[in-house]
Amino acid sequence: MSSKLIPSNPEQVMVIRDVVPNTITTLSVPFQRFGRIKVGGRGTIVRLQNGSLAVFSPVALTDDVKQKVAAMGEVRYITALDFEHHIFLGPWHAAYPNAKVIGPEGLPEKRKSQNNEDVPFATIFTAANPHPSIDPEFEAEFEYEYVPAHQNKEIVFNHKPTKTLIQADLMFNYPPTEQYSKTGVSPTSGILTKIFGAVTNTDSDWQKRLIWYGISSKDRTGFARSVSQIDKWGFERIIPCHGDVVESNGKGIFQKIMQWHLDLATKQK
Predict the structure, then answer these.
(1) Residue 6 near residue 60, CB atoms below 8 Å
(2) 244: three-class secondary structure by DSSP
(3) Given pLDDT bands bounded at 50, 70 and 90, which one contains residue 269?
(4) CA pair distance 229, 149, nearest whole angstrom
(5) Do residues 120 and 143 touch, judged by C-beta distance below 8 A?
(6) What is the pLDDT of residues 151-166, one digit of tens each?
(7) Contact of 43 with 56, CB cutoff 8 Å
(8) Is 92 exposed, middle or buried (0-12, 13-18, 19+ CB in 10 A)?
(9) The whole model's pTM is what?
(10) How many CB atoms lie within 10 A of CB 268?
(11) Which domains does the chain carry?
(12) Alpha-carbon dihedral of residues 85, 233, 136, 25, nearest 10 degrees?
């Protein structure tokens, strides 16, 4: 875990925010891709109606985070939303060993090759089994879709009670204002960051092009199929790992960014 990527002082720069009181809390931190591009990082904690907690894309487990978790409930699920958002699985599972660890196919092997902590995966999403059973309590509140056509093997969740889409790299919402708000550093400074921001905001069509010509280019049909399924869900908020939370009109923004893939899915029917 390079210090160029992850802040050395997460307890000082992390923003812990209740997005939905008593239900959803986000853990937002500064994060630099390749040590140069400011994209921000975010973990999400959801409190289920039975009081158990589901953690998505866990970030640094600071003392403040532990206190927040203790006040919310018992951690029952820890999910790496894709191939890239897994580096803190070890510390979280060590702290909450009874939690079920969830992730995409190939991630256990990747972690082993990188000499990461040995974490037992309870559920692995695969192309052959894209909708595995997790447990009834979890499935009562979440819809989920595996996107194997995404280059990072993305898993997307919708928390139905709060109409909140939780995802990692399916789409971005640049700039990462909240994630850099405690650093004293501008989230848009630097030429590489500005270029990246131009193609990962939700105001222009550039992110649509990035996903079409880049991220989904190896299997646009498969990607479109997954996006079409996600589009059937009723969500209003989007919590991305990179960039700010989309607090409202999330469905409309999603449809704008994924328009070409949704059109392709319609043609395939």
Answers:
(1) yes
(2) coil
(3) confident
(4) 14
(5) no
(6) 999 999 999 999 999 9
(7) yes
(8) buried
(9) 0.96
(10) 10
(11) 10-268 (3.60.15.10)
(12) 50
